[in-house]
Design brief:
This protein is α/β, with parallel strands linked by helices. It contains nine helices and 13 strands. The chain has helices spanning 15-26, 46-53, 72-84, 105-114, 177-183, 195-203, 230-246, 249-266, 271-286; strands at residues 5-11, 34-39, 61-66, 91-96, 99-101, 121-130, 133-134, 139-145, 148-153, 163-165, 167-168, 173-176, 208-219. Strands 1, 2, 3, 4, 5, 6, 7, 10, 12 and 13 form a ten-stranded mixed sheet that branches. α7 runs antiparallel to α8 (249-266), α7 runs parallel beside α9 (271-286) and α8 packs antiparallel against α9 (271-286). The longest helix has 18 residues, at 249-266. The model has no long low-confidence stretch (mean pLDDT 95).
Length: 302
């Protein structure tokens, strides 16, 4: 049987990074079967570039999904994977526009696929590099112990050979189409953050997730992406939903208590921080997802 890898790539207003990423896929020693680009209503000329890209002569199928509005990374991956399920590739590589795979990434993945029993494998992934060092936060082991929740990066010493994990980001992860059909699609209403963690945790219930460290992906990440901002709201809300969806109610309650205590402590630093935390907790409890009317892209604390 000949195995194929397709690509789902989500982009939003980062045309220069998108161009660099696409060049990495075109230069693969084993080309993808197709590339599906989900454009989250970019306004920086991405649409014009993609119209031209569709007509470039390359040896793989090209598909562009132009969304009428920005539905976030989670919505983008939902739509991209839904489209990928209609294609014939058995494995689906997912990444944002700021992830640049090394030239032999697909070759390494296919070599593994051809030489291993696949029935119990849900996903593969590689090493994520930032500033020429392994960025450990992308490959984790998540578990509960008593009433505590733990999510720990896989130690760097394990990157000398293949290893198992259960939580990976959408930076160069390859999902089995058969397992996607069983586990379902990512939660599209998370908007951003924790959609990949929740999804990989869910997928890990149906098969192993294996990291092949020889696959290397450079992540051209914004170093300020984790500072307190509008994104913090989605991080807290979606983190709590991840726990509720995958762990016991006792773990869920414990984490709410911890976050409430922290938010009250921040009240004396900045009241708006506390309001954001409490709003996120309330929306997690009420299962209010999607784009919040206040905490939209660009919102900043006073």
């Amino acid at each position: 049987m000949e195995y194929k890898i397709g690509v789902v790539l989500v982009t939003f207003n980062r045309l220069s990074k998108l161009k660099k990423a696409l060049q990495c896929y075109s230069n693969q020693s084993a080309l993808p079967s197709y590339i599906i680009i989900v454009d989250n209503a970019s306004s920086d000329g991405t649409d014009i570039f993609l119209d031209e890209w569709l007509h470039n002569d390359e040896h793989f199928e090209k598909i562009v999904l132009k969304l009428p509005q920005n539905i976030g990374g989670s919505g983008g991956f939902y739509e991209g994977l839904k489209k990928a399920l209609q294609k014939d590739a058995e494995w689906i590589w997912v990444a944002d526009d700021d992830a640049y795979p090394s030239k032999n990434s697909f070759s390494i993945a296919l070599d593994f696929i051809y030489t291993h029993q696949l029935d119990d494998i849900a996903a593969l992934c590689g090493s994520v590099l930032f500033n020429e060092k392994i960025c450990l936060k992308h490959r984790r082991r998540t578990f509960s112990k008593f009433l505590n929740f733990h999510s720990e990066p896989v130690p760097e010493k394990e990157y000398c050979s293949d290893f198992l994990l259960n939580t990976c980001s959408f930076v160069g992860s390859i999902f089995s189409k058969d397992k996607i059909k069983i586990a379902g699609l990512p939660k599209k209403d998370y908007f951003i953050w924790y959609d990949d963690s929740e999804y990989s945790l869910r997928m890990s219930k149906f098969g192993k997730i294996i990291c092949l460290p020889q696959i290397e992906i450079i992540h051209d990440e914004n170093i300020d992406s984790r500072v307190f901002s509008w994104k913090t709201y989605y991080g807290i809300r979606n983190y709590l939903d991840l726990i509720r969806s995958n762990f016991s109610p006792f773990i869920f309650i414990t984490q709410i208590i911890i976050i409430v205590a922290y938010s009250l402590k921040r009240f004396f630093h900045n009241k708006e921080e506390t309001v954001l935390y409490i709003t996120a907790i309330k929306d997690a409890l009420m299962q209010n997802f999607g784009l919040h009317p206040k905490y939209r892209p660009g919102w900043k604390i006073n």
